[in-house]
Structures are given as C-alpha cells and as structure tokens.
Amino acid sequence: QVQVVESGGGLVQAGGSLRLTCAASGRTASIDAMNWFRQAPGNERDFVARITWFGGSTYYADSVKDRSTISKDNARNMVYLQMNNLKPEDTAVYYCKAVDVRGQAYWGQGTQVTVSS
Predict the structure, then answer these.
(1) For 36, how many CA atoms within 13 A lie in the half-sphere containing its CB?
(2) Mind listing the pLDDT tens digit for each residue in 22-37?
(3) What pLDDT does residue 27 have?
(4) Which residues contact 48 (CB under 8 A, 6 or more apart)?
C-alpha cells in the first residue's frame, strides 16, 4: 500500500503563487506515477498534472500548463505542484493520487486552495 498526504494549500490573492506538496509513504518503490487532481464545489474531480515516478515525464491539463510545474524528489518521496498566476477559478480542493505499477490508485485527503479576486 501507498499513503499520500497533501499540504501547502491556503488563501492567496489572484496573481499569486502556491506550492503544494504531496508526501508519499509505504510501498513507494511500487509507484508508477503521481498525479494532482482538483475538485471545485459542485464539480467533478479534474486532472491537473502528472509525473512519472522514475522517468520524470510530465503532463498537464490545458487549464494550468502555462502556469504550473510538477516536480518530484524521489529521495524524499515528495511531489510538488508549483502554481503561479493563480486565478479565482483555480479555487478547489487539490488531491494527490499515487498510482502503482499494478494500476492501483491511492488518494490523499486533499488540501484547500482558495484564490480571492
């Protein structure tokens, strides 16, 4: 099993920046990729960004790709999501999702990001 815990959310003004952190533990050697998703009230949970655990390939949703960077630190079992030029529409609960080599998904509890206009 893999456990993930998010942190780094908060209240920020439009145009500001935040860095979200996802700490992984447990069977981290079995991780294939780490993902960030977000869910705004009344909306579905949407994909934000993904990074492969060993290769480091990255993928982004169109809505964030010019403003965000996903990165990792394998030695610390950490994944980061740096978000810049935040907009009110970025307001959501941000979730970290680990996927292992068998396709099993592990979700964290989420961290709230609120962007004020």
Answers:
(1) 35
(2) 999 999 999 999 999 9
(3) 96
(4) 35, 36, 37, 38, 60, 61, 64, 68, 81, 94
